[in-house]
Amino acid sequence: MNIKLTVGLPCALLLGSLVHCGGGRSGAETSSLAPLVTSQPQDQAVKAPASATFYATASGDPAPTYQWALNGVPIPGATSNAFTTAGTDSSMTGQVYTLTATNSLGSATSAGAALTVTGPPVITTQPASATVRLGDTGTFSVAAAGLGGLTYEWSRNGSTLEGVTGPTCSVPAVSPDLTGGSYTVKVTSPSGSATSNPAILTVAYGPVIAVQPASRGVKAPDPVEFKVEAKGNPVVFQWFRNGIALAGANEATWSVPVTTVAMNGDVYQVEVTCADVSLWSDKAILNVSGAPVITAQPRGVSLLAGSAFSLTVEAVGVPEALTYQWNKDGDPIPGATAPTFAVAQAAVGDAGSYSVTVSNAAGSTESLKAKVAVTAGYTVGGTVTAGGEPVAGAILTLGTSPVRTATNDAFGAFAFAGVLPGTYVLTPSIPAFSAVISPASHTLTVPDDGKASFTAVLGYTVSGTLTGAGAGTTYLSLQPAGGGTPQGAAHLDLGGGSGFTFRGVPPGTYTLTGRTDLYDKGVPNAHDPAGTLAAPVTVRGGDVAGLVLALAAGAPDLSLLPAPAFTASGMDSGIVLDYAPVTSAGVEQPQFYQVDWSTDPEFATLSGTRRLSPSAGHLLILTGGLPADGTVYHVRMRGVGPATATPWSPPASVPVGPASGLLSASGTVSFATPPTGPLVVGLRDLASGRAWMTRLPSPVSPQPFSISGIPPSSPGSYQLIAFLDQDANGVPSFGDAVRTQTVAMDQDLPGLAPVLPSAACTAQVATRHSRPGGTDAYALAFTLKDGIRHVASAQVVSGPNLPVPASLGTNGGSSVLTYEAAVTARPAVGDTYTILATYQDGTTGTLTTQVTGVLDLFPSLDAPMGTGDGSGSSADLQPAFAWTGTFPPAFHLAFSLTGPGVSWGVPALPPTTTSLDWSVDPGDPANRVTGSLAVGTPCAWTLAVTDDSGNASQVTAAYTP
């Protein structure tokens, strides 16, 4: 059929084909033809086991593809216009085969062709063996398929049972002589016969215990045997010791090859089972006598002369009356006849080898020897200096047991006397200063290493007040003017006071910055939409006080921003929303998102509404018991702030219900811990935002799932996501166990097997390397991510080059806690840090993380170009920033610029990037500059090189427009 179209006419849906009118020349002609079955498949009749072939033809333009179906279900691989079965049997009679032809204009399905198979009958269900109680009736059944009438002939032990000619054979009033009988059935049709597998009849009776097990007495370590006599069929034994089943103890006799006094009083009992009836024997007691057995040996000790020590032994024996005699170097110690031997003040002569002999009426046992070492001890000492001068008043902590402390003198010296040989950690602190001490701690081995020297950098105090509208937590930092790691951060709650203090600040020039946590995210480096002002700070030879930092209220006017964009997909009893955040200057602006859904396209009435907090996943599962019957719901969305909101997004119309056809994905979800809360599992197309998901209210482990209606993926992969929605908020949030992975989808995808994690949370440390003023500086960036629990706060409790404990701060509604701190020396790969995490419920957990790398790849920064003619207008200031350097493909670059009243950052540039134009983010057009440049106002710009583990090296340069 030819269809002639003329450009300029309206687009139309013609004969099932959507004709696109977006271009072309006037008078152009287009020909198309939907599929049409031109030759129908014919019924087939064959004799088993011959194969059967079905054939059909179809026309269409474009040429159609083919798919055969059996009883309406597509046959994998049957994609030509002919299909031949692999073989046949009589159970296939009545199967119906159809062919569907498909092209871009539609599809056509042929009439059904039926298959008839002649041949001997097929036994579809074999008779099963049976255990029947004495006197009851045993029953065997068979199921078979075949053409024509079927007849049945039952046999026992090869002999035909007269009169038993149906599919069921009953054996009434079974007797013991019938046990072990083999029953078979021969099924006959006009085309042949088939004989079943044998089914065995077991006649059960009993049990009856004829002889009970008897209590036994024995002297350790002799063996002992318990025995029972029982009658019944089939008889099974299970022996128990003190109520616990003994593995492998399934005979009428149970033997204990070696006895000990610890077994005295053990109770043995046997359970005798015949089919479905069990009987317990009487209890038999094991009485064991023997010499004492030492259950806890005395342990050696090393101590200083004048210290106390004690040695203790624990033993059992039968009879239970025990006596003790302690020995030193093989000789009895007069009067030492108790389980514990103690010396109040040890002398060097008390050193030696100690043992104890424990006795009862059945014999004696000597303990292992315990070595006691008594020494005069050693001295551990050293100095603490700052700038070459001694520091008085430093406190040194030595990790002995118990811990010892010492304070150094006016000459900076300290000493610990009487230290036993061993390995200890020596840690300094200076209460009068917030000093940075190098090394942060020293590990020494006594007596080989008894000296330690520490160098301190004594800083000054920087303090002041903060002003700003609104309550909330504010994070302050002192940023060195030449770049590098901030000196510290203060957490200030505007509701409880406005004073702040930094201690231990070395001399230098800094910028004091602050940012209010407007939406209670609780992350120190989170970018809230609150405005930020900066103040210069110079530290010379003393404390700096009286600073005032004014923060703008900064709540954004969301009415000036676009509505959020989203994609809605239907699922069983719900809707999946995949949305893009509303951002400005790379910062997500709304306090929350509002989602409405209704069967009314005008939203005059609502079926439901939700508030959604910003999250990294930008995924929401709406499940409100929506009927999975194809009802169409209309969904809209907007971002909401404290006082303003974005416009409503254009509504999306979504039918609710499971999809069908196309491809399917299936498998099982396993859980490392017992699942609680509903399970959401499905596939996401991250490119388009479409999703195909299912929600299982009460999952088990492993939990099967199956999702259909999935189109082939393009460019070739989807995201498989599974999470336990433990807080039932429809979002993968902290406290939820989440697992994602990438899967290809070009055909049905069975066998998916995601395992949800059990880790409470995970910790990571990354290094930061910079060179302010040409001097290497290092910092550590810690990141804690929620697993199945939410981290409320954390602190580093051990690790090199870092004063510990070091607080990582507190965390509110975010699932990630981050903190950055300067260290006193270059980190090394393998440096290990221990973190104590406090969870939302008040419990704690210990995490460890290691340094994976330190980067020394520094780009070379060029002077910014194209800054205009100096007129001073913001439009005139459009610099281009350029750099040189070669970096591995797995790395990425991060650009940032800060200055009074202006900031901009581009976090993820490809490693081949060599320049960046001001205010143009090639990866995110919505990432705009905050504030503006001003002629003559100095700024600093930084370029960081980052590997895939988060380790970074960065260079900072000054820039004055």
Automatic annotation (TrEMBL):
Tagged with keyword Hydrolase: no
GO CC annotation: plasma membrane
Domain of life the protein comes from: Bacteria
Annotated keywords: Immunoglobulin domain
Gene3D superfamilies xrefs: Immunoglobulins
Classification via InterPro entries: Carb-bd-like_fold, Ig-like_dom, Ig-like_dom_sf, Ig-like_fold, Ig_sub
GO biological process per UniProt: homophilic cell adhesion via plasma membrane adhesion molecules
An MF annotation (GO) of this entry: carbohydrate binding
Keyword Cell membrane belongs to the record: no
Protein name: Ig-like domain-containing protein
Organism expressing this protein natively: Mesoterricola silvestris
